Amino acid sequence: MPLFEVPGWIVPDGPVAESSNSRKRKRPATESETSLKLHSAEVNLEKLVKKLTGNGGGKERERPNKKAGKTLSKDPLPSRSRKQKRDDVADKKKTISHPMPLKSASERRDAAARPSKRAKTKHESSPFEEIQVDEEEEPAASVGLTSLQRSMKQSLDGARFRLINETLYKADSHEAQRMMQEDPDMFSEYHTGFRHQVQSWPTNPVEHYVSSLSKYPSKTVVADLGCGDAAIARGLIPNGMTVLSYDLVSNNSFVVEADICTCVPLPGGEAKEGEKSAGTGHVVDVVIFSLSLMGTNWPSSVREAWRILKPDGELKIAEVASRFSDLNAFIALVSSMGFKLKFKDTSNTHFTLFEFKKVARKFMEAEKWSSILSQGDLLKPCEYKRR
Predict the structure, then answer these.
(1) What is the pairing mode between strands 284-290 and 221-225?
(2) Which residue ranges does the record annotate as region Disordered (predicted)?
(3) E-strand spans in the chain?
(4) Which residues contact 169 (CB under 8 A, 6 or more apart)?
(5) Other beta carbons less than 10 A from residue 110's beta carbon
C-alpha cells in the first residue's frame, strides 16, 4: 500500500495542469532584465546615502524664491542637530519661568517716578475722586514689597480711606466717634489717606487759611473745628498765634478730643430768653471749618461756633464745591443761626470759600432749633467714584 494512501481517496498520477482561465500569465524574466534592476537599485541606494551624509560631491541644488529674488538651499539637515535645538528651547523655557529678581528700594522709586504711558483723567467736580499714595511717605509695612505688592497695598489703602470717608459723611457725629473709639486705627488711617489725597489737589484750603491768618494780629485766638492732624496750628503757632484744635480723636499734642457737634470745650453762652444779644463769656476771634462739616448733624457745629465766638467774630468755611446743591439755601441756614455773609468765593473748581460775621440774635425755643438743625441734607455726602 503506497504511503499516504487512504481508502476512498483517489490521487492522480500526474501534476494538475494550470487552468486556462488565468487572466494574466507572467513571463519569466530574462537574465539581462534582472541584472538591470539590480544595477538601478544600487545606483539609487548610493545617491540616497550621499544625500543623507551631505557628501554629494557636487553643488547643492537651489530653487529660486520668486518673491525675494533669492535662492533657498535644499539642505535637509541644519548646522545643529534637532536634539541640540530641543535642549536649547527647554533651557530657554526654564530661564523664562524663573521669578523676576527683587529690585532695591532706590530702583523701585526710580521706576515709580517714570511717567506712565496713559495719563489719568482729572475730574474737576470733586477733589475726592482719585487716591494716590506717595511712595516717599510709605509706612514701614510697605518696605521690602515688590512693585506689584506695593500697588495692591495702595489700592487697598485707598479703598479703606474711601469707605471711612463715606461712613463719616453719612453718619452723625455720635456714631462716628463711637466707631473711632472701637477701632483706634480708623482715625489714623483716614487722615493718612487724607494727607496723600491732598497732594493731588490743585489748591489746599489749609494753606489758604495759614497764609491769610498769618497777617492777623498775634493775639488772635483761632478755633479749628474738625482739625484733623492740626495742620493750621502747626503753621500758625510758630508765628506766636493761639490756635485751638478739636477733633473726634486726638492723635498728637496739638489736638483736643471733642465732638464739635455736641459741645466744644470752650467758654461762651447764648442769648437769654426774651432778649437779643451776642451772648457772653466768649474768647475766640476766628472759627474755621476746613472741609470739616461732616456728618448728618453738621448744623449743630455751626451753632457751637456762634456760641464760642466773640461779637463780630469771623466764621470761615471751606467745602467741596460738589457738595452744594443750593448755595443760597446753605447761606440762609448759616445766617439763621446768627451770622451775616461777608463774602463767598466760587472761582475755584474744587472748593467754595465763605466768610461770615457773628451778629446778635434773638432767643429761640427748642422747637425752632430742631427745625434749623434738621437741615443737614443741604450738603450732599462727599462720595468717591468707583474705578
Answers:
(1) parallel
(2) 1-140
(3) 62-64, 71-73, 221-225, 242-247, 255-257, 276-277, 284-290, 309-320, 339-345, 351-358, 361-362
(4) 294, 295, 381, 382, 383
(5) 11
293-327: per-residue pLDDT in tens?
999 999 999 999 999 999 999 999 999 999 999 99
* The pLDDT of residue 139 is above 70: no
- pLDDT recorded at residue 183: 85
Of 265, 259, 262, 255, whose CA–CA distance to 188 is shortest?
A: 255
- DSSP, res 54: T
In the chain, domain spans: 203-378
Strand bridging mode 221-225 / 242-247: parallel
Residue 353 half-sphere exposure toward CB, CA atoms < 13 A? 16
**pTM > 0.70: yes or no:** no
Q: Which class in CATH covers the domain with range 203-378? A: alpha beta
Fill in the amino acid letter for 112.
A
Q: In 3D, which of 150, 146, 149, 120 has the Cα closest to residue 135?
A: 150
pLDDT tens, 23-64? 555 565 566 666 666 667 776 777 776 776 665 444 445 455
∠ CA 148-149-150, nearest 5°, is 90
Q: 95: which residues sit within 8 A by CB, 6+ positions away?
A: none
Give the burial class of 323: count Cβ atoms within 10 A of its Cβ; 0-12 exposed, 13-18 middle, 19 or more buried.
Answer: buried
User: What residue has cell string 544625500?
Assistant: 51
Closest Cα partner for 51 from 81, 73, 72, 76?
A: 76
DSSP string for 136-203: GG--GGGTT--HHHHHHHHHHHHHHHHHHHHHHHHS-HHHHHHHHHH-THHHHHHHHHHHHHHTT-S-
Q: How far apart are CA 231 and CA 343, in angstroms?
A: 24
* Higher pLDDT pick, 328 / 383: 328
Determine the pLDDT at residue 368.
Answer: 95
Kindly report the number of other CB atoms within 10 A of residue 326's CB atom.
11
Q: Are 127 and 350 in contact (CB under 8 A)?
A: yes
Q: How many residues does the chain have?
A: 387
Q: Report the alpha-carbon distance of residue 307 to residue 309 in Å, rounded.
A: 6
Closest CA to 351 of 37, 187, 127, 155: 127
Q: What are the φ/ψ torsions at residue 207 (nearest 5 degrees)?
A: -65, -35
